[in-house]
UniProtKB/TrEMBL annotation:
Residues 1-114 form the CUB domain. This is CUB domain-containing protein. Signal peptide: none annotated. It comes from the Eukaryota. It comes from Magallana gigas. Gene3D superfamilies: Spermadhesin, CUB domain. Keywords: Disulfide bond, Repeat.
Amino acid sequence: VLVATETHQRLFSHARHGDNNYNNKMECEWVIMASHGNHVKFNFDTFEIEDESDCGYDNVEVFDGKLDTDPGLGRFCGSKIPAEIVSSGQSLLVRFKSDDTINWKGFSATYEQVSLQSQGSGVIKPLPMT
């Protein structure tokens, strides 16, 4: 579990991000928690995940809660940086998976705790998983 604070913190797809591509058959999950009454703001800074029309090979999925049964906020791959994500509650689950071939650079992201009153914008609505 990663604890979000009011200061930006960084998350990387893999330990040698920036030096090496990610490995085959990775499966990583991060639960990011804000304090009671606050929300998690999550932004990808760099994003290069093996591209495929349904993101069926390698992907990053984000869920609005602690579990993968919570509403999905997106399934991402390719090199287009996804939009900012803000949880509706105090937690987000980020899951990164890679298959057994073709590895790209991975991703880097920042996360922080926010109150929606100070945010000035709404929460991303859960979308159907594609």
